[in-house]
Amino acid sequence: MDEEKYMRMREFSRVDAHLPFAVRLVPLDERKTLRSRVSGERVLAESQVLPDLQDKLLNDWIKLLNAKLDTVISILTFQKEGFGSLPIASVNISGAGIGFASAEKYTAGDVLEIKMILPMMPPVALYVYGEAVNIEKRMDSYYIGTKFIAIDEEIRDEIVKFVFRRQREILREKRR
After folding, report:
1. 77 neighbors 123 (Cβ within 8 angstroms)
2. DSSP state string for 85-144
3. What one-character DSSP code corresponds to residue 109?
4. What letter does residue 104 receive in the DSSP assignment?
C-alpha cells in the first residue's frame, strides 16, 4: 500500500513531538484493572465547585484564588507521582496510539503503561496504556508502535487537542 493511501486510512492525525515520557511493561496481574487517567484527577475530583456569590468582585477573586490553588495542587501531584523527573523523548502520537524509540525490546501484544506530560496550558500529565502492535529493529534501539487501550474519550480528546496544537506550531514554523 502506498504511503498516501495509508495516511488517508488513518482515523486520527499524527504528529512528531518531544515530550516528558516514560514507559513500563504492565505485568499480567495488573492488566485486568487498567484505566487511563489524568494525574491528580482524584485530588481535584474531591474538591467541590464553588457556588456563585452575589458580590461579583469577591466572586471573581475567589475563583481566581481557587484556580491558582488547583494549579499548585496539580504541580505538587505531578512531582509526587514522578512526572517532574521524566526524561524527554521523541514520539509520534495520535488519538489512536503512540510510537517511540526504546532500548528495550517489547513483543507484539505486550501492554505498556505510558506516563507522559502533554505541554498544554495547563500541562496535562497522563497515564495511558498501549498494546505493542509494531516493533521494528533500528540501529541500536527498537521503534515501538502502540495502540491505546483502556482509554477514556476525555483523555483521547486531550491527546487530539495536543496533536492539533502541535500541527499548528509546525505550520507556523514553516511559514517563517
Report:
1. no
2. GPPEEEEEE-SSEEEEEESS---TT-EEEEEEEE--SS-EEEEEEEEEEEEEEETTEEEE
3. T
4. S
Q: Go through the chain and tell me how many residues it has.
A: 176
Instruction: Identify whether the C-beta of residue 162 lies closer than 8 Å to the C-beta of residue 120.
Output: yes
C-alpha 38/C-alpha 41 separation (Å) is 6
Reported as a single tens digit per residue, the pLDDT across 108-162 is 999 999 999 999 887 889 999 999 999 999 989 999 999 999 999 999 999 999 9
Rounded to whole angstroms, the Cα distance separating 128 from 149 reads 8
Cell of 117: 506530560
Question: What 8-state DSSP symbol labels residue 81?
Answer: T
Quick check: pTM over 0.85?
A: no
- Determine how β-strand 88-93 pairs with β-strand 15-25: antiparallel
* Cell numbers for 36: 487511563
What are the φ and ψ backbone dihedral angles of 29, each rounded to 5 degrees? -70, -15
Contact 130, 111 (CB under 8 A): yes
Task: State the residue for C-alpha cell 461579583.
Answer: 56
Residue 3 near residue 69 (C-beta atoms within 8 A) = no
pLDDT exceeds cutoff 60 at 8: no
